[in-house]
Amino acid sequence: MDTMRDRFAPTLTRILDEDPRVAVVLAVIGADAFGEARRRHPGRVIDVGIREQLLIGAGAGLALTGMRPVVHTFASFLVERPFEQVKLDLGHQDAGAVLVSAAASYDWPAGGFTHMAPGDVALMDTLDGWTVHVPGHPDEAETLLRHAVAAGDDKVYVRLSTQSNTRALPVDGHGFLTVREGRRGVVVAVGTTLDAVLTATEHLDVTVLYATTVRPFDAESLRRATDSAGTDVVLVEPYLAGTSTPAASEALSDRPHRVLALGVGRRELRRYGTVEEHTAAHGLDPASLRERIGAFLGRRTAAA
């Protein structure tokens, strides 16, 4: 199966053909995949070189002229390194753009910590007005990219991953999907964590919600799920653990509730290893999730 990033360039090339307002801004990474698009649209495929601050600034400049820029590189170079430009050139000037990242969290362990950005969504949370999509399958990535580009002049962050669930679900760029219904707790699985969550909770009497659009946070769906499943909530996120805890707690602020936040830990793993080894080390593999979720919710969650 191809990856989300494999889908990115072909999908965006088709969008460039369809919409003369769209432009793509790159910083070397991914540029080879846009060779044909550059030949067809030489003025709308821009490579600024290894200059990440300029990458964001150029995107903002295009937005201010009425273009719809799609800006792409690794997450650590798209969100963390040029964060001041994201805050000022886009946010302060209220300029809309679509930021599309790759290799977030630990998708490329051999690249080392310089190429990891598990705190990207938490960092974007410090800014106002951003929509954040976290697809869990290449088909979903294609759908959500199209949603992002079509979102007028909004500010949108699309987080691509080399990891994937086995099948795509009909995401709409808005709310959570109910994948399984239960009575003894709610588990929110974000993006590529869904398969592991479903395996881990197979014999637990819990509701599983699937989230691919995490900002704005779908408070209504979470509240509706807790009406029948109770207010014990587990958040499983493929980035920094606890990123969505404030949003979940705010959604349930008028109800006594508990939240268990599972995700990428703060401790830096200094050995390259594999993606699977990093997943297990952060407790996001099915066995670890089963133990942690079961301990939090208690034996009473076992399905009859």
Automatic annotation (TrEMBL):
InterPro entries: PDH/Transketolase, THDP-binding, Transketo_C/PFOR_II, Transketolase-like_Pyr-bd, Transketolase_C
One MF term in the entry's GO annotations: magnesium ion binding
SUPFAM superfamilies noted in UniProt: Thiamin diphosphate-binding fold (THDP-binding) (SSF52518), TK C-terminal domain-like (SSF52922)
SMART domains: Transket_pyr
Domain Transketolase-like pyrimidine-binding as annotated: residue spans: 2-168
One family name in Pfam for this protein: Transket_pyr
Protein name in UniProt: Transketolase
